[in-house]
Every structure is written in C-alpha cells, then in structure tokens.
Amino acid sequence: MSGPLAGIKVVEFCEIIAGPFAGMLLSDMGAQVIKVEPPWGDPWRSAQPFSETEGRPFLAYNRGKRDLTLDLTTPEAQDVLTRLIPDTDVVLVNYRPDVAAKLGVDYPALSKMNQRLVYCENTSFGRNGPDSHRPGYDVIIQAMSGLMVAEGKLDQGAPQHIWSTPMVDTAAGIGMAGCVCAALFARERTGKGQKIETTLLGSALALMGMRFLEVESLDRQQRTQTLESLNAMRAAGISYQEMLEVYQEDHPQILGNIYYRAYQTADGAIALGCLSDPLRHRLLDTLGLKDIRFDPGYDPTLPASITFAQRLMEQAVDAFRQSTSEEWLSLLEERGIPAGPVRFVEELFDDPQVIANGLVCDLAHRDAGTIRMMGPMANFSETPLQAAPFAALGQHTDEILLELGYTNREIQQWRQRGVVR
Asked: Is the overall model pTM greater than 0.70, yes or no?
C-alpha cells in the first residue's frame, strides 16, 4: 500500500455510513483496514441488494478493506480481540453509546490492550446530555439540527428532508477521518493514544455554517421573539405548515436573487455564482439589466423595492431562456463569470474533468465484478492515494485469523458454531 498512512492498521467496528466512510477514506490514504462484521453482515448490505450479501449503498462506503466476520457476543471473539487490538493503531466505532461496551469494544476495554490506540467513536448526539442514549440517523439529525426546516420544503404538510445525499453521515465520516489523522500526529509527538468523540449532531451544525451563528447585539432580540412565537403556535395547535409560513415571513429570503442560482436555458440548465459585487455588476452588464439595490439609500422594505426585485428575477429568467447552455457558458467564461452546466449523475462517469483528476475509478469485486465509483478525494504529490478493491462478506476471515495464530481446525469449528461466517 502507498499513501501517507501506509503501515497504519485500522480496525473498524462500524455499520451504515459515517464510520464505514471514515474507514474507506483512511484506506485510500494507505491504511490497512479490517472491517469487523457479524456473520450475518452489516445491515447496509441488504439495502438495494443485487445479491444475497451485497447492496449498492454498502459498496459506496466500504472499498479497500479486508473483511472479518465475527460474532462479538461470543467468548471466542473476545479472545480474537486480545490478539488483534495490541497491534492496531486505530479503532473506529459508530454504535449507540451502550452497544460498544456490551460488545467489549469500548475505549476502556480496548485501551487496556493497547495504550497507544487511537479510538474514534461517532455517536448521534454525544456522550453527554439528555439525548446521549438515543439512536439517530441522518434524517433525524437533519430534523433536530435545523437543517430540515432551513430547506423550507414540505411534503403533505410535513418538512421534507434533504434526500439526494446522506449529507450529515457523509460529513461525519470525513470529520472522523480528519480527527484520526490529527490524533495520529499527536501520538507521534507524545507517544500516547487517545479517545476521539465525534457526533452526527456536531457534523450537522458544522454544515449549518453561518445559519448557526448569533451576533448577540444583532440577533438576540429576534431569536427571543422567534422562540416566543414558536412556543405560542405549538401551544395553540397550529399546523407545521402554518408555523413555517409565519417563520418564513419573519425570516424572509432575499428577493430577486439573480446572482447565485440555476437557470433554465433554451436546451437545458446552468448554474452560476456571483459572490462579489464586481461579479454581480459583470452579470448585470452581460444581461443588460440594472439593479437599483446598488443605489445609495435603497430601502428593501418598500413595496416598490419588492416589486422591482420580483421583476428583476423575471427578466433574468427570461434572458437565460433565449440561448443554449453552451452559448451561455461560452459567453460567461469570456466575461469571467463563474458558471457550469447542470448535469445528471450518469453523465459524470465519462466526464473529462472528472477523469482527468482521478475522481472516478474502476475496482474489482470477487462476486460483483467491476465496479465504477468515486476515486480518492485528494492528490498527494509524494505519497499518492490509491483506491483498493472491495471485499466480499467474510472474504478475509480465515486469512486474518490464521495471521493471528489460530489454526484451520479452530476456524472451522467456529464456523460450525456461527462465530464466523
């Protein structure tokens, strides 16, 4: 294995997305990752299945690992841990807080076997507080973090979650991998391992960015009024849809946002982003439009201002519909205005830009054949990253147990008793 983490050994006790994605990222960076699954497999294997033990979502987050099946509730599994963990650098866990201890893979138990161990645990809400014991998934954290209401989308009167990607889980996986690298660096300086605690809730709040920020002198009174209004509406039994409408009236979106959005063209759609005044003025000049909001003394609350903003949007939308995407992209590039085509996912596998930067790769799977997916997320000049092949359920069980000193006879006896697959 190449990569900046070559020689680092990782054991992953994780299911679903966040922890497995972290393990995959560490594998891309050269770490040797062993994924420990129960003999019946990670439950994510049964999502969108195309074989008895493989599903599309599972493959998306689990390349580059050796797979060891092990029923952690058995005495035999605990004996395996006493041989496996002392030679391990990193452990990843993303069970509920109580599950890790029940399975004997909590930090107190494993750190006794290896004081240099970097142990990274991801939970939904953290170890402290009234929700610490609760399980949680991406959709629940979207709801509880404010992400869902920030989208302002409804489905039959209820808020609609961001469903195109498990964004909270994905962010948590990236965060876990980054924290592990930092802890390994700290260990190089101190010689000490440590426990890292990450949360889905914390990842979601990080994604909220400037929305989860309060300037006390500007925002405190508004927040107090909002909380009083929400509590009063809940007490009165007001529907969520009505509550959202009131909330949006008190927190209006900027009208006439022609500068940072997608537009329909004559044959498709493009997106553009003008986040500075010079770029905005350049776009106005390109479209032949004037925006009075740049004029001194402009008051956005006046009825005339609201009418103007709506009309400006209509003019911009109409302008973009007059030419093709290719024509617009050519002109916008010539004018130095950031823009790009709106693509479908299927188009990206053959996209020259994606291919040129190694952002797609072909990998082998023992049972499924060739799988094409995202490549490593970064390029390292001296320690290049490399995506490694997939492992089928239990593919490396015998290999790993033999390396730990168990005999073929012992392994077969365990298999007959359901300890391993």
From this structure: yes
